[in-house]
Amino acid sequence: MNRKRMTFMIIIVLFLVLPVTASATTQLRGQIVQFGNPVVVEQDEVIQGDLVSFFGAATIQGRVEGDVVGIFSPINVTGGEVTGDTVAIFGPVSLEQAVLNRDAISIFGGLSAGSGTTIDGSAIAVMGSGLDVREAAIAGDRIDVAGFLPGNISGFTVLGLLFAALMVIKHVTAFVVGVLAIVIFPDRFERMADHAFEDIGRKTMIGLLVNLGVFVLIVILAVTVVGAMLIPLVFPAFMLLEFAGNTTMKMAFGRKIAGGMGQKWGSILELFIGTLLFLLLDITIVGKLFTFIFKLIGMGMVVESRLGDQLPRQTQGGLTNES
Predict the structure, then answer these.
(1) Is 318 among the domain residues?
(2) End-to-end CA distance of the chain
């Protein structure tokens, strides 16, 4: 009887202890979405779902039963396993002794995999630092598209470089078109550049009213059947006005700089120097505020002068300037 009682007690203890031991060995967690902070999946953890990280590193040492996605977040899989896709956008993917059941993808970051890593899908790197997976076992394709940046570069740095490249392309294009505009309308742009810094308060207000007026006009046209058909014509007209205003101000700044140096440059060189100034300002957040104000002044100059055709007489010291 005592032996039966003892056996029964042992069975009861085993039923109570084993679940506790199992839960201490493997911790189950649900889907994870993390903003701004790093997330770590420990060796004894299993994520039953996807893991998504924004602006914080994701480190996988355990198992993720789903996709791992990092946006502006580096992904490090060290001795861990991911059953879904592993994707980093504006961040690198680093794999060491990792097991990936599907694709590993890095866009604007770079992908590296050390020995002992197996990828059952493809390894894909688009721009960033490229693909470095020579020691890994990969069942699918190895695709490296335009990997030219140095390793360990952050997603913010890549985004900044892309933004700077777009600014360069934008201003180079504007310079080329500006040269054509100056060649076709030399006298008009000369006159506008000469008078651009006169009464800038009024010109700024005119430019601001034009910007607001275009927005109001689009809203009015959008609520009418016939007007909606005219909206595609409003945007090109507004862009031409912006272009003329920017070109005028670039020439005006180039002319000011030349005058400050005691030089007299041609219109093309003035436009080139002004373009460089606008480019340097445009790649900074504070500088873009200044280029916006300069654009308003230029647009006001274009509207007020009717594209340099009519310029108001300026009075200085109570005397009319007849020149």
Answers:
(1) no
(2) 125
**Run means of pLDDT, 10 residues per run, the chain, 323 residues:** 57 49 63 89 91 91 93 91 92 91 89 90 85 88 76 62 84 93 92 92 93 86 75 86 94 93 91 93 86 94 87 47 41
pTM: 0.60
> How many angstroms separate the CA atoms of 36 and 101, rounded?
27
- Considering the domain architecture, whether residues 89 and 208 belong to the same structural domain is answered as no
Residues 290, 180 share a domain? yes
CB neighbours of residue 89 within 10 Å? 16
Domain boundary among 116, 145, 174: 145
Give me the sheet containing 86-89, strands edge to edge: 32-35, 51-54, 68-71, 86-89, 104-107, 123-126, 142-145
Q: What are 320's two structure tokens?
A: 């009319």
Residue 150 lies in a domain: no
Interatomic CA distance for residues 66 and 28, integer angstroms: 13
Among residues 96, 116, 145, which one ends one of the domains?
A: 145
Report the alpha-carbon distance of residue 76 to residue 234 in Å, rounded.
49
The amino acid sitting at 39 is: V
